[in-house]
Design a protein that fits this description.
This protein has about 100 residues and is an all-alpha fold. Helix content is about 75%, strand content about 0%.
């Protein structure tokens, strides 16, 4: 497979659409939270959103009080993109290792 020869490049380009879907289609309701009667899928999406965007949320927490609120959303998206990129690379490396162990 051609994408396995250059996993970093493949992950770099694959992370952008994944993060766009994650940010715009499945946004975490930060202001209102998740209701108690939400489905397990909504709760799972909320938890993964918080974990993946944690560095950006911390940056947002620092940027807004210091007058840089406009950069907060950029920090959230950038941290989500970077974490998604790292997860894709880790998954590809694990799959390659698994293929070597069990040919």
């Amino acid at each position: 497979m051609e994408c396995m020869k250059h996993p970093m490049r493949f992950a770099f380009f694959l992370a952008a659409p994944i993060e766009a879907v994650n940010y715009f289609v499945f946004p975490y309701p930060l202001g209102v939270g998740i209701p108690d009667n939400a489905s397990w899928l909504q709760k799972f999406i909320g938890i993964q959103w918080l974990v993946i965007h944690w560095p950006g949320l911390q940056a947002l927490n620092w940027l807004e009080p210091n007058g840089y609120g406009g950069l907060g959303n950029f920090a959230v998206v950038l941290s989500g993109y970077f974490d998604t990129f790292v997860l894709i690379v880790a998954l590809m490396v694990a799959m390659q290792s698994f293929r070597r162990l069990y040919p």
